[in-house]
Amino acid sequence: MRLLNVFLYEFNHFRKNPAKVITYLIFVFACIYSIYNGFDLQKKQQDTIVSIEQEAQNKVSFIANFFGNIQSQPDALEVLGYIPIYTIKPPSPLLPLGIGQAEQYGFYKKITTWSSTYDNDMVEELANPERLVNGNIDFSFLILFLLPVLLIILTYNIRGFEQDFRFEKLISVQFGSIPKWIFVRFMFYVLLLIVTVLFFIFFVALVNNALFTHFHQIGSLILLLVTYIFSFSFIFYFLILKSHGSSAIAFKMISAWLVLCVIIPGAVHQFVSMTYPVNYMTDYLDANRKETYEVFDLPTDSIYLELIKIYPDLFSTKYAQPNHINAKMIRNTTYAIVNEINKVSIEKIEKQNNSKNELIRASYWFNPLAYMQNKWNSYTETDYYAYRGYRMDVQRYIDQNIERSVFQAWDEIKLTKEMYDDFLKTFNLNFKN
Amino acid sequence: MKHILINEWKGFLRNRVFMILLFIFIFSLFLTTYLGIVQNNKQIQAQKEAQEHISEQWDKMDHGNPHQSAHFGSYAFKPTSVLNSIDEGINSITGNVLRLEGHRQNDVMFSEASQSLLISKFGKMKPSLLFQFIIPLFLIFLSFNSYTQERDTGRLKLLLIQGASLKKIIFSKIISIWLIGLVLLLFATCIQLIFNLHQLNIDTLFRLILLLISYSLYYLILINLTILLSVIFKSSTGALSLTVVIWVMWVVFLPKIIGNTVEKIVPLPTRVEFQDEMDKDRAQGIDGHNPSDNRRQELEQATLIKYGVNSLSELPVNFRGILMQADEEYGNDVWDKHFGTLYSQLQTQKNIYQFSGIINPFASLQSLSMGTAGTDMFHHLYFLSQAEEYRRDLIKKLNNKWRDGNWDKSFFNSIEDFHYNVPSFLMFIGKYLLDIVLLSLWSVILIFLVKYLSKKTVIL
Q1: Would you call A104 and B112 a contact, using CB atoms and an 8 Å cutoff?
Q2: In what order do the strands lie in the sheet with B97-101?
Q3: Residue B157: CB partners within 8 Å, gap ≥ 6?
Q4: H or E element: which one contains A88?
Q5: Which of A50, A282, B200, B249 is 20 to 30 Å from B399 at the Cα level?
Q6: For residues B442 and B129, which has the higher predicted lDDT (pLDDT)?
Q7: DSSP characters over A42-84
Q8: Reported ipTM
Q9: B299-342 pLDDT, tens digit each
Q10: Would you call B61 and A293 a contact, using CB atoms and an 8 Å cutoff?
């Protein structure tokens, strides 16, 4: 009963303290603003995707009509080459809860036979770089960086106030255990913050109909959130117990926040940067330019053999036969060789990025914030690996498109309705009219 | 006032916690500045090697005709400034590699931020991180304690009885704490000077001095504000809460909120819209690779008339070179229109953001810090414009050679590599005047407010 009274007393204290209420309301307002921003980014991405799909849909409809009117079978390569193929990374319904690294990458890519996963159009959307440096008011940022500050503002004078005015002894006379008294008062704010954040998480999940479709991710986010708040609470509670006076408590709490949220991540960032300086991707540039031009300079026989090596089944196609060899057509499909060269160089880049990530992950035990933010971003599908997965999808589309083009060219395949339907299915072009 | 100031310093020097913290700051500053320089030099070296690699490739390659070489193109690698070791600015966000080729103006690719998982939201542990986030907080706590402690312990009354004026006491405290900030700033600057001695020039020195002045003004603002609030508020905890809230608003909330708002006031096109608009305009011009193009035929006729011949085969020059240059020049107009609009939108965004210094001096400080370090958007856009100028010059040389004929390896080898001339800060100073004015205004206004309040406050 006594515990409950202290808990209720804290509620009254909070209610009557304008500074704390205003600070809390600022946080709530910031959460609303961040979620609005998240929805805004999500909508922008969706609108862009819709406009891209519209363009593809128009061309698909045109070809569909064309099938009804033609007398003879057209050339597959020519007709299918008319339809734009895109690989798209649709935003996760949980994106409003964490923008993460979403603004660092592109989310749509036009696939051609000359594409690669590090093309110019794979870069981020147009944005002011200084705005990107400052970042967005992102919900995950509020939770991971500002929620601890709010907790400091709400709790630094628990016990500190009583110590400043020297009536702490009165508390021990009236209540008994000071640690217990602090704990109950502290828990009020911890619960208040957890409930507040949970409200926003469920709100986004409900608005985006993700409660059941992304049940696992939402559950994991909540678990992560609770663990995070409790970890910081434990540190702050310990600091209150071991310090004297509200300004000393505030100073130590802010210092703990600075160390965990700014200094350690900054130091790790600097170390990682020294170990793996900015990659100017010269391997990829060589593949994309020098080695590509070397392929162009190869004699047709060599290109022929290289292509057969990549696709052994090509050997049985029409133009692979000795009496049918068509030099122009063979040279026109060199992109398949270039694609293989690009893939080798890209694998090196991905490996280096992975080593860099390994180093970052190795720091997680003393850099918990980096773990928290990357974990959070992975649930909202906005971390490095979500975009790496997207790059893999792009590469898969490129490979499929190139293979299709090469075989259609070498075998001079005529387009049938079945082939056309299969093409739409493979490249996800079956739009609902 | 001199005695109070000396006394304040004596007090600081006798305080064990203060001395430990000061030592930690000096040590961290040394380490971060030194490591920042090491990391920067590594990056400068990597950039140099990449540029040499590409240049070597150009020299060694077997150039077919000049137009093939235009397609082969070149690369510009964004160079790193010496003061990048203090403030990295936008460098980790923007790409570092720019492809320079015929027929198109490209965008920079391969940003550092896209090459790994997220590590730090506040950037690397560079001196700017300490200057902007950690030292200010240290100064806030020192200032807050310095006045409230005197008041709460009754020592302030004693000092006043002895004849000191409140104004003198308060300003002595402000100056003594400000000097701590200055010492830390000067220390980091000295490390920078010592380890970068061989790369120093007048421009870098000027930039460093302005950087130092900007931060010292910002520290003066913070200290004045903290003392002002502790004088106004009777409750020391209330004053501290408000100061911390203001600090968080300045460094965390406002830059993000204002940045977002500015992007809504001056919206940028999406990449698809931007590309589509350019493609549309580009399609209306000459298409160098499309023989059925009407505009190509018009150019053909005009060239025949100019040279007084009847067919292309009678021309004393190669028509394809003329055609490609015409195509290029039309393309340049299109790029100028679209990239020009985009860059001016970005600059408008930045200008609006700079006005937020009226309510947030941190915005002015950040702008000056990145600007003096040569790592802000203005410098980035300058790099892009220089690279584009080089591209146009390169392609023109190649097209003209194709037109005139008689090329050999010596012609290709005579083409100079892209060299970025770091702009002198004086060239850009006009862009930062608003930041300088706002920081100075904040300082002056707060000094006057403290002066006014110290006259009005009755202690005895």
Answers
A1: no
A2: B74-77, B97-101, B104-105
A3: B459, B460
A4: strand A85-88
A5: A282
A6: B442
A7: HHHHHHHHHHHHHHHHHHHHHHHHHHHH-SSPPBHHHHHTTS-
A8: 0.88
A9: 888 888 888 888 888 888 888 888 888 888 888 888 999 999 99
A10: yes
Amino acid at A423: F
CA triplet A409, A412, A415: central angle to 5 degrees? 105
Which residue is closest to B381 within chain A, CA to CA? A129
Q: How far apart are CA A261 and CA A232, in angstroms?
A: 11
pLDDT for residue B287: 61
A320 Cβ neighbours under 8 A, 6+ residues apart: A304, A308, A314, A410
Give the residue from B87, B115, B135 with the most A CB atoms within 10 Å of its CB, the best one to mutate: B115
pLDDT tens readout for residues A347-385: 999 999 999 999 999 999 999 999 999 999 999 999 999
Tokens of B114: 């896209």
β A85-88/B74-77 pair status: unpaired
Where does residue A25 rank: exposed (0-12), middle (13-18), buried (19+ CB within 10 A)?
Answer: exposed
Confirm if B135 and B25 have CB atoms less than 8 A apart: yes
Helices (H), A175-263: 178-207, 215-242, 246-257
Please report the pLDDT score of residue A337 as a whole number: 93
Q: Which residues in chain A are closer than 8 Å to B133, comparing Cβ atoms?
A: 258, 262
Q: Do B119 and A297 touch (CB under 8 A)?
A: no
What are residue B101's phi and psi, to 5 degrees?
-145, 170
Alpha helices in B308-358 (DSSP H): 319-355
Around B118, how many Cα atoms within 13 Å sit in the side-chain half-sphere? 31
CB spacing of B117 vs A361 below 8 angstroms: yes
Residues 6+ apart with CB under 8 A from A11: A188
